[in-house]
Design brief:
CATH topology: Peptide Methionine Sulfoxide Reductase, Chain A
Number of strands: 8
Largest sheet: 6 strands, mixed
Order of helices and strands: HHEHEEHEEEHEEHHHHH
Number of domains: 1
Distance between the termini: 34 Å
Strand content: 15-25%
Helix content: 25-40%
Shape: globular
Number of helices: 10
Bound molecules: 2-acetamido-2-deoxy-beta-D-glucopyranose
């Protein structure tokens, strides 16, 4: 039932190379990590209204990574949406779709831009699955809240259909119902597979990863799903930290 792994190993290779270059054994990075950084890394309450969008586009580990890396996305949460089963869980999600809830700052990124990323990040023609993942839980859905989102989603779907000509876009546009957050172990899943990045963040407790914008970004970075410019920017930051042995990665 778990999503097929899509972990690429080239990031690990890069990191290993970096470590070898500065000849530090993995376990003893000479980075001075303060004991208590977690509070400083928690997001302060925003003083502007954030907006929320929900999408389903296959395995939610990957979906979260895709959106988390975008500038303007403040927080991501994976969960279950679009079905009728009450209180779904990973091993028993009923008729829900694996989904990602994206909280974003509309002054930096808008709904149309999120829709573009949605279409570009999966195959909207695939029936009953996504990539190697087979099953109804991996279906493609745009969950809309209100008439404006519904309109924008509809227009973007028509555009996508025109682009794909004879293939049928099977993406559903569905009114947003209850979004059930998934179990903690599924949040920032890609980042959690990468102890090196966790260490660079000052080994933030797992619970604190959930609301962290930095964790959302690094989760995308770990999966190598950031836009190339951002992927490069984070590479540079990490290089810099490794060279200086300081500080902890607090923002990217
Ligand atoms: C839908 O949008 C309204 C207005 O923007 C917002 O107050 C509400 O919380 C949203 N509902 C959900 C389920 O996100
Ligand atoms: C994350 O934020 C939500 C909503 O603001 C809050 O209910 C939850 O307790 C926070 N989780 C952590 C681990 O801080």
């Amino acid at each position: 039932m778990a999503c097929a792994g899509s972990h690429s190993s080239s990031l690990l290779h890069l990191l290993t190379l970096l470590l070898l270059t500065i000849s530090l054994p993995y376990k003893s990075l000479s980075i001075r990590i303060p004991d208590h950084v977690s509070t400083s890394i928690r997001n302060p309450p925003p003083d502007y209204p954030l907006k929320t969008a929900v999408f389903a586009l296959g395995c939610f580990w990957r979906s979260e990574a895709v959106f988390g890396c975008l500038n303007g996305v403040v927080r991501t949460t994976v969960g279950y949406c679009g079905g009728s089963k009450l209180n779904p869980v990973y091993r028993s999600l009923g008729d829900h779709a694996e989904s990602v809830q994206v909280e974003y700052d509309p002054k930096v990124i808008n709904y149309n831009q999120l829709l573009e990323v949605f279409w570009a990040s999966h195959d909207s023609r695939q029936v009953f699955g996504q990539g190697p993942d087979v099953g109804n839980q991996y279906r493609s859905v745009i969950f809309t809240n209100g008439t404006e989102e519904r309109r924008l989603a509809g227009v973007s779907k028509e555009r996508e259909q025109l682009k794909l000509r004879s293939s049928v876009v099977v993406t559903q546009i569905q009114q947003l119902g209850t979004f059930y957050p998934a179990e903690p172990e599924h949040q920032k899943f890609e980042l959690k597979q990468n102890p090196f990045l966790r260490q660079l963040m000052g080994s933030l407790p797992e619970a604190d990863l959930e609301n962290s914008s930095l964790a959302a970004k690094l989760n995308g970075y770990a999966a190598e799903l950031c836009p190339p410019r951002i992927q490069k920017q984070i590479n540079a930051k990490i290089n810099d930290i490794l060279r200086k042995g300081w500080p902890v990665l607090r923002d990217v």
